[in-house]
Amino acid sequence: MQCVEFEKHLQQLLDERIAPETDEQLAAHAESCPACRAVLEIQKRIMEVMSEPVAVRPADELSHAVLDRFTAHRKRARRRLATLALATAAALLIAVLPFVGDSPDLAQKNSKPNPKVVGLAIAPQPASSPWNEQDAEELRLLIRRVFDEISEHRREALEPVDRIASGLRPLTTTLNAAFAAIRQTLPGQEAHESEPHQAWTGHSTAHVS
Amino acid sequence: MLALVEHFRGQVFGLCYRMLGNREDAEDAVQETFFRVLKNLGKWDANRDFEPWLFAIAGNRCRTALASRKRRPASYTIVEPIADTRPNLDAANHLAEEVQLGLDQLRPDYRQAFVLFHQHDLSYEQIAETMSRPLGTIKTWIHRARNELIQFLRQRDAIEESSYAMRRV
After folding, report:
1. Which of A37, A72, A133, A150 could bridge across to A30 with cysteines, CB 3.0–4.6 Å?
2. CA-CA distance, A14 to A37, in Å (whole number)?
């Protein structure tokens, strides 16, 4: 066996957790090679040291120190969470407060037409538009239908909330009022007051049936 | 929680002590390790072994400690041979100190892989998982660690001295 082979074989034995000094081939080479004998001896001693636990022991209070630190961290985290929840609740309350207490009637009375929808409704139409009155009426009906559907879905979605938390009832009332108010701004709702026929002629979605 | 910390405290301290070479730093690393383990216990995959995950955290803490030690080089290890004048120095303790000094000279990656293999009896696969490295890399690191350790101890004549001391005892 050559020294290179000795080294390779030594690593293999160590990889397999076999004590190198028990290997006959290694022992035979080490007998005739002082350098490899020294390596074998050192390796044996290293393994002896590594198989023993470290002589130094950690302080007894170490475990309690860890737990104290972790407990303090958890308390801080809980406090942060509570503060965050409180801040969120306060922000929601501030956001909702202006609507709570308004009756649907009042909301309708106070509501102003949505400027965007009105703007769309009274936008000047090109003179060469192929639109006619019938198309406009159909579109109006379609929008109404979709909107009613959405409102109905919204109402249905809010029903469980209504059942669970009666405290949320003012909010649903307010939302319904808001929907009603928006509905008022839709074309066709005030057909006789805002010249809707003229407003809707020439709309680009002519093919809606 | 206390039971968990108590159960693994010795093993984690062993790794941290071997990695950092002194008790104070090792205790800090142990504390930091368990704090992180408890904080992130929910992230541990229960289908896998706990030890590799634990040792991975401990190894990371040790490497962080070593990196910060490098940034503030106030203390350093003296590697020059020093004549020990203590009359009845225990040969085994002397050898253990020499091995620890040798370990301190290794690259932290080599050291961690070596300690996990030879002291904690983790398999190559587990070490690869712990250190997030390929199996071949881990094998190479451990082989190099062995060779470098042998070289270091030969240079310091540690074995001859300790063998002589042991024979004398």
Report:
1. A37
2. 16
